């Protein structure tokens, strides 16, 4: 037993000395640049003495992956590919794609021409509508004043309730001359007549109240063409009479004279010397004693026709 123990101890000591000797030899002969093959094959301590930090396999991979861009010169430059023309059919006719493109282009050109013609037709139609509404000075010398003579009639009545309740609606007639129909500012002179029934105490049944007068006005023509809206303002007088009526009370007088201040708005239409005129007027006036000291202001709507020179 003791001999076996001694033999084991001796073997251990010899192995330690051998390991120490190999260890010193390892560090002296180690490979500092091993290859992959060495890494796989060497199993002893000498592997680290001959190892390759950059294996051969890795070098080959790197060399294979390097991108080498060749220099382009006139000799080795490849020509750019030419656009391929659409193949033509037999006989030199264009292909179906080209024919389709040509048809689309022709259709667009036709549509553009039709649109242009439609716009021209619309302009002509607009001019045909607007042209008659333009000024008539193009057909008449500008140096002419323009004089119109008109005659017509209408209806009217008193504004004061005391007069309107004792009389019927007036029938009116008028004759008027306008000086300056082709300018913005014009003058008027007119005769005005009226007739209406009277129904009040102190006057026999069937009596009539007639009026005759005249006025002069300044007129402003907003337009001077075929259509001519305008406004007027002036001064005038009116003579009223009950005629042969029998009066039985002192608060009714047979006649009366009042001053009037006519105001009007109207529209005239002029074409080739013909004039048509419509107007709404108010005639503020002074008070009269012909029918119990009532105010004789009136209103009227009338239409006239005449000629322009």
Structure overview:
The structure is a single chain. This protein has 309 residues and is α+β, with helices and mostly antiparallel strands. Among the domains are: 22-55, no CATH class; 147-308, Porin (Beta Barrel), CATH 2.40.160. Helix content is 28%, strand content 34%. The protein is built from six helices and eleven strands. The strands form two sheets. It has an eight-stranded antiparallel barrel with strand order 1-2-3-4-5-7-8-11. A two-stranded antiparallel sheet has the order 9-10. The chain starts with a helix and ends with a strand.
Summarize the structure.
With 309 residues, the chain is α+β, with helices and mostly antiparallel strands.
Which tags fit this structure?
11 strands; 309 residues; Porin; 34% strand; two-stranded antiparallel sheet; alpha+beta
Mean of pLDDT: 78
Number of helices: 6
Number of strands: 11
Q: End-to-end span in angstroms? A: 167 Å
Describe the protein's topology.
Blueprint: H1 2-28, H2 36-41, H3 47-50, H4 56-65, H5 96-130, E1 147-158, H6 161-164, E2 170-179, E3 185-197, E4 208-221, E5 227-241, E6 255-260, E7 263-271, E8 274-283, E9 287-288, E10 294-295, E11 298-308
Antiparallel strand pairs: 1-2, 1-11, 2-3, 3-4, 4-5, 5-6, 5-7, 7-8, 8-11, 9-10
């Amino acid at each position: 037993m003791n001999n076996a123990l001694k033999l084991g101890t001796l073997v251990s000591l010899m192995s330690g000395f051998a390991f120490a000797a190999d260890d010193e030899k390892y560090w002296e002969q180690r490979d500092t640049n091993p290859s992959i093959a060495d890494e796989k094959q060497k199993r002893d301590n000498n592997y680290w003495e001959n190892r390759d930090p950059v294996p051969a396999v890795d070098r080959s991979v790197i060399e294979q992956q390097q991108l080498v861009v060749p220099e382009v010169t006139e000799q080795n430059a490849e020509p750019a590919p030419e656009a391929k023309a659409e193949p033509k059919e037999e006989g030199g006719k264009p292909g179906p794609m080209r024919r389709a493109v040509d048809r689309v282009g022709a259709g667009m050109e036709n549509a553009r021409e039709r649109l242009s013609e439609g716009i021209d037709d619309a302009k002509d139609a607009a001019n045909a509508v607007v042209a008659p509404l333009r000024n008539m000075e193009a057909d008449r010398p500008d140096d002419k004043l323009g004089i119109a003579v008109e005659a017509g009639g209408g209806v009217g009545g008193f504004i004061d309730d005391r007069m309107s309740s004792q009389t019927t609606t007036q029938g009116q007639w008028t004759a008027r001359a306008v000086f300056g129909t082709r300018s913005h500012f014009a003058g008027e002179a007119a005769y005005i007549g009226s007739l209406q029934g009277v129904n009040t105490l102190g006057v026999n049944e069937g009596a009539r109240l007639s009026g005759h007068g005249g006025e002069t006005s300044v007129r402003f023509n907003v337009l001077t063409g075929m259509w001519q809206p305008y406004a007027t303002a002036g001064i005038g007088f009116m003579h009223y009479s009950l005629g042969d009526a029998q009066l039985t009370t002192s608060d009714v007088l047979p006649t009366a004279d009042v001053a009037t201040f006519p105001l009007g708005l109207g529209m005239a239409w002029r074409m080739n010397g013909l004039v048509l005129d419509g107007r709404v007027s108010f005639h503020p006036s002074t008070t009269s004693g012909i029918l119990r000291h009532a105010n004789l202001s009136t209103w009227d709507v009338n239409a006239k026709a005449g000629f322009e020179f």
